[in-house]
Amino acid sequence: MSDVEKMIGGDYSQLTNTNTRSFGWKGVTVSVKDRQSQQPKTILSDINGIVKAGELLALMGPSGSGKSTLLNVLAHRTAALSANVKAAIYMNGLPANPKTFRRISAYVEQEDALVGSLTVRETLNFAARLSLPKSVSTLERIQR
Length: 144
Fold this sequence. Notes:
This protein has 144 residues and is α+β, with helices and mostly antiparallel strands. The protein has four helices and four strands, in the order E-E-H-E-E-H-H-H.
C-alpha cells in the first residue's frame, strides 16, 4: 500500500526537500500595453519576497490585483502576451536556473470553470478524464 505522507511504497523523492532552504524574488516588474491608449502600463511594480523552507506563504488580493501574474513570473511561465518582465529569482540566495526550478517545483493554476452541481469526486474525475491522453480507452478512463 502506498502512503505519500509516510513515504511508504513508492518513489516520492520529489516531494521531499533536502536542498532548497529559501526561494526569493526581487524587483519583479511587469508591464503590458494598455488596450485603450496603447501605452505601456505597469501591472506589477518592484515586488520583493522570500519564502524559507518549512514556511507557508499566502498570496491574497482582489481579482485583478496581479496574483496570477506574479505566480506566473515566479514559475518561469509567460506572465502575459507581449509582457515586458523584469525579475530576479533566487534559490538559496543564488540566481535560480529555470530548468532546475521547473524540475523541482509545481504550480497548479486556479480553475474557475467548476460545475457547482458536481461533488468534489465527480469534479476531479471529470477533470482527470479530460486530461488523459487519447490512447487511454473509455473503460480505462472510467476505472481511473
